[in-house]
Write a structure and sequence with these properties.
Layout lengths: L1 H20 L16 H14 L8 H17 L1 H4 L9 H19 L11 H7 L12 H16 L5 H12 L1 H4 L2
Helix pairs in contact: 1-5, 3-5, 6-8, 7-8
Amino acid sequence: MEQKKKFIESEILTWSITAGLSRGTRVYKEGIEELDKKPSKEFLREEIPKRFGHSYHADSNTHIGNLRTLKEDIDKDKKCLSILDGQKIYFGRIQKIVNLYLKYCWVCFNDPKPVHCPFDRIILHDGLSLRNISWTSMTEDQYTEEVLTKAKEVAGGFEKITEWEIDFFNNANPTYLNV
């Protein structure tokens, strides 16, 4: 059983990182080859389980601070710094990677319910009607002042955001509707 759990944990990390680094605003400098992106992905693979592991549970403000710290640490890492476009990664990408990872762990392993959900285009544009915000270039201020405020309102309370997101995503995602 331990091998199966190790396998799915690795897959969850891969899915989360891939989802957070794909699409939209450029992550890496122009001309960076796939192999050269390895340091940033390795950094995330090592740090996410360490910082946001199975027993992770935080209130909203602490979670935002933890996301900020991870972003700042990536921005300061010499290996990542040399390949990141603009020498930074956007807060929106960090929240997507970490919040998706926490969501998968909650669903698959019955880990503590995440305080936030992963905010992507479907959730921001269709669920929250925040069409002026792109998750791939979202700032921390947009996340805290606009996105979380609107999500709390739409979900009917801060503690209901996670369940609201799963329900909305399952019902709004065309991939699932046509199965």
